[in-house]
Specification:
Oligomer: single chain
Number of domains: 2
Number of helices: 29
Structural class: mainly alpha
């Protein structure tokens, strides 16, 4: 236990150091850009402290670089000189310290009952998640102060004793970020009326003081820019994750957009605050705070990335009555808050409205829809356990090597599975693109492959490539097959297994994942030019047409694909995986035979179209075999013995009882 705590705290410290190092390594023009704009460091004319927003005697908003409230400008002005001196290590370290304080408060405010082990490990885990989140990373890079209102609210709700002190802190947070005023009705409706009044009074006093000292700036912010709307980047930019920004991106504008925004904002406030009050009364105050913050994100005219920390706090809610579903919501929040939308969703035009608004949609779903469990639910502490089957006996005593890798009989959660597949493929694509040692090395490896194939008398690529030129129907068929079925058939197989054979789905998916990882190793250590990119060998690129081999151009895919990732051929490897899976699980012989046609057609297509060498296909078959082998070694045989069946070591295959030696994965027990 103590060792786990030490390791987790070390991870949190390493992440903090990494974030600080990242900020300080940036060029001066890219480091703490907002802070430099405010204080005047690295100004345009090269004279420090002259053009900084907080130095200018006129309006803070003349150049619209400053996006905070007038009260924020009033507070920051006295700190300008010290910020100039501390621009770098001190400012970044102070921000990281505030993040650590938020993590500690969140860990202590987790809704009970929780185990002592969980409470001790919660703080470093919370700090680590905060460190890697997009809002914190963005705030650190730009030098923003958006972490402060979140910290003030958390201090007011969980650390300060007395409603007046609590309300004063939250009121100051509202003066810095006006949407924090949404915590006033939350406090009032949960019985903390003195805190609600103090919050409103503190906000009013701070705003009135600023009006008295800075009337022109106050008028500009509250009236001309309508509480900050229009300041900073364009409101319709992807950085603005609010309902207002989403409506503008959809093409709405003018009075219609404003009216629709007000109606939607009112509905979100009503639904979100109603749910927040219910969970606060249930004893889940941290969840109530997170829901209210998500409402604030959605209804604010502008909600920039560094202001979305509220969404990350929503992962404290418990959603799902089953063990296998309990981690889905935290995983979704962490993925949304740490990865850009381009990683989470495919690059398809139909997905753009969702991809461009992922943080906003997560905030809306959190505030209005996710069915978090109340503490009175019987499943709050004891979710429905997962059903496991016992692996069939292995031939070797030391298999499985991971005895805790138990065979789950039920389907994995679909949302989490889709996210895992998409994020995994995105990571695979980025690594594959980066795994290039240059054209000369790839072509040198290509000449090596040709020499080996000639020695083995398997160099049939040139013959196959030129032979299909005389059969146009065959050429068209192979071109179509190469471009079309690489993704369709594996996804179809996974989909059918997920619906009909969930235990087999996990077995097959794991084998495919291992094979793909091994393929990346090949791409990284052995970049290889395919036949169509080998100069002087006379190959014809039947799919893409004639190319300049020094600078091939494949349209939009040129910059996002690595043309020298030929060994091993996952084009053939994935097709062979499909054939093996179909041959193993299909109930009829004709289905098995039909499934094996796919790898046969694929290997013919990749060689005839000059996209791969014969050795590439052998490499693809090798990694697929290794993938299935790893699953066997780590998890044991595919066969599963159902725990609730009587009799000696009975097992199922296709829902029918069979001897253990022939058993597969039961579909009848997956509910």
């Amino acid at each position: 236990m103590s060792m786990a705590r030490v390791v987790l705290w070390l991870v949190a410290a390493v992440l903090a150091i990494r974030q600080m190092a990242h900020v300080l390594r940036l060029p001066p023009g890219q480091r703490l850009t907002d802070l430099e704009t405010w204080t005047g460091v690295n100004s345009v004319d090269g004279v420090n402290g002259v053009n900084g927003v907080l130095h200018v005697k006129g309006s803070l908003y003349d150049k619209e670089h400053f996006t905070g409230t007038p009260f924020a400008g009033l507070v920051l002005k006295p700190l300008t000189h010290s910020a100039e001196q501390a621009l770098g290590v001190a400012w970044t370290f102070s921000t990281l310290l505030l993040v650590a304080v938020i993590g500690v408060i969140v860990a202590r405010a987790l809704p009970g009952p929780i185990s002592r082990r969980s409470s001790l490990l919660a703080a470093p885990v919370a700090i680590s998640l905060l460190m890697v989140s997009l809002p914190v990373r963005n705030a650190l890079t730009t030098g923003q102060t958006s972490i402060i209102p979140v910290l003030l609210v958390l201090l007011g709700c969980f650390a300060v004793r007395g409603e007046r002190g609590s309300g004063a802190l939250i009121g100051i947070g509202a003066a810095l970020q006006p949407t924090v005023l949404l915590f006033v009705p939350l406090l009032w409706l949960t019985g903390r009326r003195r805190a609600a009044v103090t919050t409103a009074g503190t906000f009013a006093a701070a705003t009135a003081l600023t009006w008295a000292l800075m009337p022109h700036d106050s008028w500009t912010y509250w009236v001309h820019h309508v509480a900050g709307a229009g300041l900073g980047a364009r409101a319709d930019s992807l950085a603005n994750q609010s309902l207002h920004g989403a409506l503008l991106r959809l093409g709405l504008e003018g009075p219609l957009e404003i009216a629709l925004f007000l109606v939607l904002a009112a509905a979100v406030i009503f639904l979100g605050l109603r749910r927040a009050v219910r969970y606060a009364r249930d004893g889940q105050l941290l969840l109530a705070v997170a829901l209210t913050g998500c409402v604030a994100v959605a209804v604010s005219p502008t909600a920039w990335q560094h202001q979305l920390l509220w969404v990350l706090l929503a992962m404290v809610g418990r959603a799902g009555t089953k063990v296998r579903d309990r981690l889905v919501w935290p995983a979704v929040v962490v993925l949304v808050m740490t990865l850009p939308g381009t990683v989470l969703l495919p690059n398809m035009a139909a997905m753009y409205p969702i991809r461009d608004n992922v943080p906003l949609l997560t905030a809306l779903v959190t505030a209005c829809a996710v069915p978090f469990l109340p503490r009175t639910s019987e499943h709050f502490r004891a979710p429905v356990p997962t059903k496991y089957g016992t692996s069939a006996p292995a031939r070797w005593a030391r298999i499985p090597l991971l005895p805790f890798w138990r065979r789950v009989l039920s389907r994995p959660n679909l949302l989490l599975e889709l996210l895992a597949i998409r994020v995994g493929y995105s990571a695979y694509s980025h690594i594959r693109l980066a795994a290039s040692a240059g054209r000369e090395t790839a072509q040198a490896h290509g000449r090596t492959v040709v020499s080996i194939e000639r020695a083995l008398h398997i160099d049939i690529e040139h013959w196959a490539n030129h032979s299909i030129q005389h059969a146009k129907w065959l050429l068209s068929f192979f071109n179509f097959y190469y471009e079309t079925f690489h993704f369709i058939i594996p996804l179809t197989v996974l989909g059918v297994l997920y619906v009909r054979r969930p235990a087999d789905y996990r077995w097959a998916r794991s084998a495919l994942g291992f094979a793909t990882l091994l393929g990346l190793v090949g791409f990284w250590f052995f970049p290889l030019a395919p036949p169509r990119l080998m100069p002087g060998m006379g190959f014809i690129d039947t799919v893409h047409g004639p190319q300049d081999l020094a600078n091939p151009d494949y349209g939009p895919l040129t910059q996002v694909t690595n043309q020298y990732a030929a060994m091993p051929s996952l084009h053939f490897g994935w097709s062979l995986w499909c054939g093996i899976v179909i041959a193993v699980v299909a109930p009829k012989l004709w289905m098995k035979a039909l499934g094996m046609l796919h790898p046969l057609f694929t290997v013919c297509a990749i060689i005839a179209t000059a996209n791969h060498w014969v050795l590439d296909a052998i490499g693809g078959a090798t990694v697929v075999g290794a993938g299935f082998g790893l699953v066997y070694v780590l998890a044991g045989p595919r066969g599963i013995q159902l725990p609730d069946l009587p009799g000696p070591r009975a097992a199922t295959w296709g829902g029918k009882s069979m001897p253990a030696g022939r058993a597969g994965s039961g579909s009848g027990a997956s509910k």
